[in-house]
């Protein structure tokens, strides 16, 4: 429901807040302490409607609000269920295959990072559809729910950092496979499983911790608009962000928006091409020489399966990298810019693309991984082979004849 614009003068502090982090609902909240009858725990505000303030936006505010509701109430829960269930299966399967092999350890860590990424998305966005249901039965509710309060207090938005940890683990997996194909004889002795675990922890820890720093930029404020009687929980810029704005903007925009995705996409693309070309050369060489000394059939099958995950990663990374690069170089694409709704929709499309990358590795493993597929079938007791009745009868006849003899 759209709200009428209200004429209110911005104070220096609220103007800074509105330029840095306005409401995700498409409105700029301005404090007004002179309003009476404010519900307990809320702040009186006047509201500026961004749809009236920026009429040139390519996507209307009503369209954005509808898409945001679908994203938060439908898409995120569905992807969370798919991601959680499939990655749990991935973890069990690769654990069964043995963590003494470093590639199994890498793929298991990838599954853990993907689960944490979708868990962060689910927790940070589940409050909005939940609050709609709660307010339907309890309209007098004015305080932030326990889930939203926990997220705000502990800055659980930082769990999104596992998205970039997942990308870096994908880079490690691709590097490992490429080296195994290019140097098959040396690959088994150069790097141990223990060292691989140390590399994963060393690379992923600062990336996740850094995004928890980015998460401190938001504070959740309960706002009350006296003109409409509506209550909205608005994310606003925190004091930490206002004091460390340059650092947080570099981390959020340059590092996580451009540098890490660009690095991961480039490395995965180049090494995947090298791996595929080398595999084709090895296949021709094996056919010509009938030699099996270069790379075992098991390693070839595993490499092809992981090449499939690399292609999935590249397909999902290209649109995300394109969107964030566009945001960096188009000044109007900001939360408080003239293309506010367009910016917000683009960000949500990027989130959904990342969700696909975190949720669909299982299907790639199952399609291209023979051993993975067999293990999954055994886990769920499907696809058991049965002997033909005629063959069974012959066996029984032979056994009976042997017994008589």
Automatic annotation (TrEMBL):
<keyword id="KW-1133">Transmembrane helix</keyword>
<dbReference type="GO" id="GO:0016020">
    <property type="term" value="C:membrane"/>
</dbReference>
<feature type="domain" description="G-protein coupled receptors family 1 profile">
    <location>
        <begin position="86"/>
        <end position="365"/>
    </location>
</feature>
<feature type="transmembrane region" description="Helical">
    <location>
        <begin position="105"/>
        <end position="123"/>
    </location>
</feature>
<keyword id="KW-0472">Membrane</keyword>
<feature type="transmembrane region" description="Helical">
    <location>
        <begin position="196"/>
        <end position="214"/>
    </location>
</feature>
<dbReference type="InterPro" id="IPR052954">
    <property type="entry name" value="GPCR-Ligand_Int"/>
</dbReference>
<dbReference type="InterPro" id="IPR019427">
    <property type="entry name" value="7TM_GPCR_serpentine_rcpt_Srw"/>
</dbReference>
<dbReference type="Pfam" id="PF10324">
    <property type="entry name" value="7TM_GPCR_Srw"/>
</dbReference>
<feature type="transmembrane region" description="Helical">
    <location>
        <begin position="74"/>
        <end position="93"/>
    </location>
</feature>
<dbReference type="InterPro" id="IPR017452">
    <property type="entry name" value="GPCR_Rhodpsn_7TM"/>
</dbReference>
<feature type="transmembrane region" description="Helical">
    <location>
        <begin position="305"/>
        <end position="330"/>
    </location>
</feature>
<protein>
    <recommendedName>
        <fullName>G-protein coupled receptors family 1 profile domain-containing protein</fullName>
    </recommendedName>
</protein>
<feature type="transmembrane region" description="Helical">
    <location>
        <begin position="255"/>
        <end position="277"/>
    </location>
</feature>
<keyword id="KW-0812">Transmembrane</keyword>
<feature type="transmembrane region" description="Helical">
    <location>
        <begin position="157"/>
        <end position="175"/>
    </location>
</feature>
């Amino acid at each position: 429901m759209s709200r009428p614009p209200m004429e209110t003068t911005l104070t220096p502090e609220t103007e800074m807040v509105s330029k840095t982090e306005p409401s995700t609902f498409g409105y700029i909240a301005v404090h007004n302490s002179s309003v009476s009858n404010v519900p307990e725990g809320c702040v009186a505000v006047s509201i500026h409607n961004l749809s009236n303030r920026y009429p040139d936006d390519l996507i209307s505010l009503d369209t954005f609000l509808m898409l945001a509701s679908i994203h938060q109430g439908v898409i995120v829960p569905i992807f969370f269920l798919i991601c959680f269930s499939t990655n749990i299966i991935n973890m069990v399967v690769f654990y069964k295959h043995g963590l003494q092999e470093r590639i199994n350890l890498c793929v298991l860590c990838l599954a853990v990072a993907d689960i944490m990424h979708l868990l962060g998305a689910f927790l940070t966005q589940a409050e909005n559809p939940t609050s709609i249901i709660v307010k339907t039965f309890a309209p007098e509710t004015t305080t932030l729910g326990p889930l939203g309060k926990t997220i705000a207090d502990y800055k659980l938005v930082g769990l999104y950092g596992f998205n970039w940890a997942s990308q870096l683990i994908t880079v490690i997996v691709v590097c490992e496979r490429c080296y195994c194909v290019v140097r098959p004889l040396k690959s088994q002795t150069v790097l141990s499983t223990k060292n691989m675990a140390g590399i994963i922890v060393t690379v992923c820890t600062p990336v996740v911790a850094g995004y928890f720093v980015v998460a401190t930029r938001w504070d959740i404020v309960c706002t009350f608009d006296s003109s409409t009687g509506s209550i909205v929980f608005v994310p606003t810029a925190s004091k930490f962000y206002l004091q460390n704005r340059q650092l947080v903007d570099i981390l959020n925009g340059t590092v996580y928006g451009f540098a890490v995705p660009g690095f991961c996409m480039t490395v995965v693309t180049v090494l995947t091409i090298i791996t595929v070309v080398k595999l084709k050369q090895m296949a021709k060489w094996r056919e010509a020489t009938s030699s099996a000394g270069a790379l075992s059939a098991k390693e070839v099958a595993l490499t092809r399966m992981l090449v499939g995950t690399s292609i999935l990663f590249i397909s999902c990374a290209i649109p995300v990298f394109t969107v964030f690069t566009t945001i960096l170089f188009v000044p109007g694409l900001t939360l408080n810019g003239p293309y506010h709704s367009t910016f917000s929709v683009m960000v949500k499309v990027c989130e959904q693309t990342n969700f696909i990358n975190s949720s669909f590795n299982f299907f790639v493993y199952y399609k291209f991984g023979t051993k993975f597929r067999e293990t999954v079938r055994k886990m769920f007791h499907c696809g058991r082979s049965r002997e033909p009745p005629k063959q069974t009868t012959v066996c029984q006849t032979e056994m009976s004849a042997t017994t008589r003899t």
